[in-house]
């Protein structure tokens, strides 16, 4: 398993990974209508290439299969962070997260923050993030609970 930066040819796999993971993993914490609003049937592949290119997007590459990805913005915001439905609980998220934290240190970022889903909250707690607040957000007419979480990085 290699952790590397996003390449444009990864975009379709990342879009499918996002869609399938939300539909098959997050369904345990959200309703069917919520996951359909979150990951609609009409995936916009071109948007993924653009968005991933504008951030520090790290992917876990398992010999050509994208097993997970996470995005760091210059503000310290972790935007998307997903592990493939077939690669859950294998330490891949931790590897991606550590690459993100290393990059944050390089950039002088002292605070990371994320809006974590109910599903992702335990992972980020394990990575020593603290819950700032529970939020209700709306997407395509559905209301979701997520958690604003943050972690302050020690100089290093």
UniProtKB/TrEMBL annotation:
Known Gene3D superfamilies for this protein?
Answer: 3.40.630.30
The N-acetyltransferase domain extends over 1-154
SUPFAM superfamilies (UniProt xref): Acyl-CoA N-acyltransferases (Nat)
Instruction: Enumerate the InterPro entries for this protein.
Output: Acyl_CoA_acyltransferase, GNAT_dom, N-acetyltrans/Recomb-assoc
Which CDD domains does the annotation name? Answer: NAT_SF
**What domain of life is recorded for the organism?**
Bacteria
Output the PANTHER family linked to this UniProt entry.
ACETYLTRANSFERASE, ACETYLTRANSFERASE (GNAT) FAMILY PROTEIN
What is the protein name given in its UniProt record? GNAT family N-acetyltransferase
Q: Which organism is it from?
A: Anabaena subtropica FACHB-260
The taxonomic lineage of its organism, from the top, reads: Bacteria, Bacillati, Cyanobacteriota, Cyanophyceae, Nostocales
